[in-house]
Design goal:
Elements (H helix, E strand, L loop, with lengths): L26 H21 L6 H8 L3 H8 L2 H8 L1 H13 L10 H18 L1 H10 L8 H17 L5 H9 L4 H10 L4 H14 L2
Helix pairs in contact: 1-2, 2-3, 4-7, 5-8, 6-8, 6-11, 7-10, 8-9
Length: about 210
């Protein structure tokens, strides 16, 4: 394939809708949001994500628990909000960053680079991702982050395998990145990021 791949059009999908700031957010509301997220991050750092509860965050942030619930809904949405900035950086890298992850490389190379980068991201954030999955098991599949990754993979697969059902293959390629499986493989089976990347590369070769 030619490396003169057209620039990807940014997806009009919010990465993590629960974490986005509403348009015209008041200054005091923005400060409360920041306090809540900072408090949740401290709890994760000091005690682990399993210690995050709405009451604990309200106490740590000195903000009423009702406000915490109104702003984030539940623990799952709060944990996803903590991942928001990292997700935005990742999306920017694969939509508009340098190749091979970003535009400018052949679709096959971009596909491999995307899966490698996703291994690193999921391992780095695995504790919070695992806690978010435990709080709401199906939330992963309706989050803006997942929808954006799925759309990107569907586009790449459509170029690599135009005869295939790209949307289905994209779901199947993202399935191994379930937080519980990645935690099992990396923390319990002691596989390294390089082991996982090699395994994903071998998986792609099976259909060659």
């Amino acid at each position: 394939m030619s490396t003169n791949e057209p620039q990807a059009i940014p997806l009009a999908i919010p990465l993590l809708p629960t974490a986005d700031r509403p348009a015209g957010e008041r200054a005091d509301a923005a400060r409360n949001r920041r306090k809540i997220l900072d408090a949740a991050a401290r709890i994760v750092s000091e005690q682990g994500p399993e210690a995050v509860t709405m009451n604990a965050v309200a106490h740590a942030s000195c903000i009423g628990v009702g406000t915490v619930y109104r702003r984030f809904g539940d623990v799952s949405q709060l944990l996803w909000a903590l991942l928001d900035e990292r997700e935005r950086q990742f999306q920017e890298a694969y939509l508009a960053g340098p190749p091979p992850l970003g535009p400018g490389a052949p679709a096959g190379e971009r596909l491999h680079a995307f899966l490698d980068a996703l291994v690193d991201r999921v391992i780095e954030q695995r504790e919070i991702l695992l806690a978010a999955q435990a709080a709401a098991p199906s939330a992963r599949y309706t989050s803006g982050a997942y929808l954006a990754m799925h759309a990107h993979l569907t586009m790449l697969l459509g170029r690599v395998r135009p005869e295939a059902n790209g949307a289905l293959l994209a779901h199947l390629l993202l399935a191994p990145f379930s937080p519980s499986l990645m935690h099992h493989l990396s923390a319990e089976r002691n596989l390294t990021a390089e082991d996982l990347k090699s395994g994903m590369a071998d998986l792609l070769k099976l259909g060659a």
